[in-house]
Amino acid sequence: MLSLLGIEGYHIGIPKGSYTVGYTKYAFDRNKLLLPEAIIETFEADVAPIMRDIFNMVWNAVGERQSLNYDQEGNWIERDS
Fold this sequence. Notes:
By secondary structure, the chain is of the alpha+beta class. It contains 1 helix and 4 strands.
């Protein structure tokens, strides 16, 4: 389960373009984000597709259509740190 409390005005930041020049910020407009549970039944489960809907809801709360961490086919996008 994921619940975000006291988040109004906080931002999700993503790197612009080459991931080295600045960040684009998306602000939460509410204080609480209570999300439904996701059930992971085994330790061997691929967590990325299970969590996709949850992450989409987080991004919806800042005005985006879906999580920017998944591609159009629903695959997790690996990013360099």
